[in-house]
Amino acid sequence: MSFPNRPIAFVLTASNHGSMIVNRNDYHLVDGTNGYGVGYQILSNSCFDESEIRFALMLLDCRRKHFGDGVVAIDGGANIGVHSIEWARHMYGWGAVLGFEAQEIVYYALAGNVAVNNCLNARVKLAALGEVCGELIVPQPDYFTPSSYGSLELRGHDRNEFIGQRVSYDAASGNKVPMVNLDSLGLERLDLVKLDVEGMELEALRGGRSVLSEQHPAMIIEVIKSDRVAIEAFLTALDYRIFPAGLNILALHSTDPTLQQVSYQNGMTMLHV
């Protein structure tokens, strides 16, 4: 019996985050030599955004310190699961993670990474986070073509980022996935929300108005593709304080004791645990 020759996209690699299923094509070279992408960082450096991960882990520690065990964290735009896995491993015995990824192929890697790293306090779902519950047509890039898949925007517009390949937003070529909002999850506790959903951050926040108002979670929100002014206005109306954090903003409710552990020095937000 002969087997057909097929290209290989996903590989299992030993990283600082544990054994990870990574797409070796997950990169976009901007000048022929320098690139970006989750897979690019892991395969080049064995890790992904170490400082951002450490910051999130410190926030989780703060929430445990101030509110006790039973910490609940949402990873919105989980990609292949670096944050989800690091959070779940860190919170073994005292916290849980709920991750969302809207790209079906990427979701398969996410779920596999949760399983292979035995992060059984993490649950991951194939779904987009939005303002309302329903369905969303998600474009499907070619995962054998080098591209930054984590940079894929789910909605098409005239300023979509070029991720390394042209992406069709024709509904006929997309993949229909569930879209849920934060309020629909029925969470009795919520401590941390990370939103990296490629321009849908404000929609996701609006879909969580009730739970954010009741639970006052700390939030790490990417703002490079969203209307930062509108996001900050929305959060300020909910009595949140906002701090710059690189490509993200950190939002802490005015009643969160974690505020006492935050300082802003030399253009950087620092967390003192």
From TrEMBL:
GO terms for molecular function: methyltransferase activity. InterPro entries: FkbM_mtfrase (IPR006342), SAM-dependent_MTase (IPR052514), SAM-dependent_MTases_sf (IPR029063). GO terms for biological process: methylation. It comes from the Bacteria. Residues 75-242 form the Methyltransferase FkbM domain. This is FkbM family methyltransferase. Keywords: Methyltransferase, Transferase. SUPFAM superfamilies: S-adenosyl-L-methionine-dependent methyltransferases (SSF53335). Pfam families: Methyltransf_21.
